[in-house]
Amino acid sequence: MSTPLAPAKNRAADLAAKVRFLLQPASYPDPTREVRAIETHMSWVFLTDQHAHKLKKAVRLPFLDFSTLERRKHYCEEEVRLNRRLAPAAYIGTVPLTVGQGGQLSLGGPGPAIDWLVKMHRLPADRMLDEAIKKGRASADDVDRFARRLAAFYANAPPVDISADGYRSRFEAWAAGNHSELRQCEPILPAGAVERVHGIQLDALRDARGLFDGRVAERRIVEAHGDLRPEHVCLGPPPEVIDCLEFNLEYRQLDPVDELGFFALECEMLGARGIGELVLECYRDETGDDPPPALLDFYKSYRACVRAKIAIWHVREPDGRDPAKWPALAQRYLRLADEYAERLLRAR
Length: 348
What we know:
Elements: H1 8-22, E1 36-39, E2 43-47, E3 51-56, E4 60-61, E5 64-65, H2 69-83, E6 91-99, E7 105-107, E8 113-121, H3 129-134, H4 140-156, H5 164-182, H6 191-207, H7 209-217, E9 222-223, E10 233-234, E11 240-241, H8 249-252, E12 253-254, H9 256-269, H10 273-287, H11 293-316, H12 325-347
Antiparallel strand pairs: 1-2, 2-3, 3-8, 4-5, 6-7, 6-8, 9-12, 10-11
Helix pairs in contact: 4-10, 5-6, 5-7, 5-11, 6-7, 6-12, 9-10, 9-11, 11-12
């Protein structure tokens, strides 16, 4: 049985003590000259010379629950299991953060576990796809190897049992959630564009049901990666994809074309539209799956709204990092959502 969250003050103090310990090079069994920390909404990542250790925060949100030690242990194990599908060499395993009789913290030492971390090999920063794009170093061979690895993953993934009504209902609910968040964001986001995009997406789900029902009938919905972005792709060789979305099964149950549309959208945001198109083309060639362009336009418009919503969440953080960048980023995503919604409208 899950125990309730401790008071926020106690949680903050506990987390601060763990972070201080994990920032010390002497805390790690492998020698390291320094430790660099990266904080996200849901975790802290500690980078040593050779490894990365991820500590999940004790948070409970509408779409995830890391509030208890048992849940954090479970999702650490899930993160390793799921990511080994596309990055088998990168993920080493889970490590307990323990406390000894004298109250001293230790990684994998004696005493009870007070938290759990995911341990990974550090991947070369210059081989991550987002960095390769920025520096013009993503070769056609690099992209081809990655795309073929990804196409094989989708081709071998067992289909998910879901009804056509259930599949469309998910998008209706998720699109409504996007709309609820984005409509509150004037003057950052123009209300007219938010309403137009939402209306076109809902009309497609209701009036072009065949686009979605056909994917379910063809058994195309699989347990995918869930967060396929260029910064999660290491070109290798061999290519590896890290940081799968481990905390919500429903968010991983996707049409590969939806996931690849999201990836293409993120490449477009980096000024590398051609890379997204090449990966989609490889997927078509390798799998024989050639969905209607209107379906891809829907997926891209919907995913751009999701990303605009996440940018807005950053805007609302009282102590958010880089506060100036988030409004502009939300606006860029909404413009792309509008662009793909307009294409979807013209195709009907």
